[in-house]
Amino acid sequence: MNITESVESIMVASVDAGLSAQNLMTAAESLGLGIVPIGGIRKNPDEVIKLLGLPKYTFPILGVGVGYPSGNSKIKPRMPKTLYRHDEKYNSENIKEDILEYDKEMASYLEDIGRIQEINWSSQTMNIYQNVYYPKVYPVLKDQGFENCK
Ligand SMILES: Cc1cc2nc3c(=O)[nH]c(=O)nc-3n(C[C@H](O)[C@H](O)[C@H](O)COP(=O)(O)O)c2cc1C
Predict the structure, then answer these.
(1) Predicted pLDDT of residue 63
(2) Does residue 69's CB lie within 6 angstroms of at least one atom of ligand 1?
(3) CATH code, domain carrying 15
(4) Residues 104-130: tens digit of each pLDDT
(5) 96 lies in a domain?
(6) What sign results for the dihedral spanned by CA atoms 21, 24, 30, 35?
(7) Residues of the signal sequence (predicted)?
(8) Is 120 inside any structural domain?
């Protein structure tokens, strides 16, 4: 098998995992269950691999917590569609304004649910992406047989 030398193997697997997780979550919610997607499963992928006995050429991309919610939480404001939906061509006009608008919506949502916000949503997001927050992903992918060199 040579596809594991290419980042394409990670891309195709991630798309498939995301699609199947979304279907699982939609189905679970239709049955009255609650869900939480867990990207944090990639924080210590070596431990998850051990725990689940995952063989070579597999990797824990995404987890989903499923259960009966104890209550109904408020719906987090969704990002304006202008930030990610583009017709025919990528359109970067107004992106900054829309982000600033979303910052305001998030601030009011967080206040509503009683969470203290030290910095706004966009600054917090920028801070997260300034770091390789899950440094084990790359070496553990290699251990699992994914070279990612092409
Ligand atoms: C791809 C993805 C990964 C996520 N990973 C985590 C996670 O690791 N831990 C966690 O507590 N929530 C995680 N979440 C859940 C979000 O925190 C959750 O969606 C947020 O609380 C807002 O809830 P809502 O989108 O259902 O309104 C993730 C969400 C997505 C879409």
Answers:
(1) 97
(2) no
(3) 3.40.109.10
(4) 999 999 999 999 889 999 999 999 999
(5) no
(6) negative
(7) none
(8) no
